[in-house]
Amino acid sequence: MVHRPVAIVKILFAVVVWGSSFIATKVVIQELPPVTVVWLRFAMGVLILGGAVVLRQQWQMPRWKDLGYFLLLGFLGITFHKWLQSNGLVTAQASTTAWIVATMPAFIALLGWLALKEQMGAIRWLGILLAAAGVLLVITQGDLASLGMGRFRSAGNMLILISAPNWAVFSVLSRPGLQKHPPARMMFYVMSLGWLLTTVLCFAGPGVSGVSQLTVRGWLALGFLGIFCSGFAYIFWYDALESLPASQVGAFLYIEPLVGVLAAAVILGEPLIWASIAGGTIILLGVWLVNRPAQRP
Known about the structure:
297 residues; mainly alpha; 12 helices; 75% helix; 0% strand
């Protein structure tokens, strides 16, 4: 357990780092194939997260019956999820990605209603509809008529959009495991198995031959993704969850897309258009309505 001020600093670190991850990914995939970036990123993350588990004396070999479960989570949460996002960012803007990813809590609530029979009142339904409307505004950049022609501005937008409900499936399936395993240790198993699956994709495809040609900018972006986004951010996030209520920790996620949009404007020069800002605001309002505490009669 850590003191509340320290926990808050750790949460802020995690959300700022994750909000900036889309920009770093956008930078490094200009120099390396997306699957190579994912493989290298999580190779670093596995080492850092594994070291933290060992140092904190939380190490324990997983039981055979848990391996299939962790493998499924690794595929959904690491291999497939990051494949969608990294390939999506080849054509999608980092700022658009940040807004779309912000809808994940709404998808989690919707899946909880469908699969777990969780309660969904009128306010939560309104929040989901608002989040959906905000996404449409963001991905069409205000040209809603383009949807009738089947256009999403870029193929990358569609891949990013698929990644949001995929993460919801991963999150809902993770709940039983988190009741039995310490979060950091479980995430280490999940990340390790997801990384191994990515290894197959990486070396069956482009491999790592292009790493020797990485520029300094590319190395900095890759190191940021691996060391901070896939390593320390996860550790700090779980430290905070052990010290503060999940609802308070989750509230800080509203900062993540704002960081992503501002960083994309400053670092990548992506324009701040009205549709993106308006759509993002609607998304955040919708997600807040979905996750607001229920009012007791």
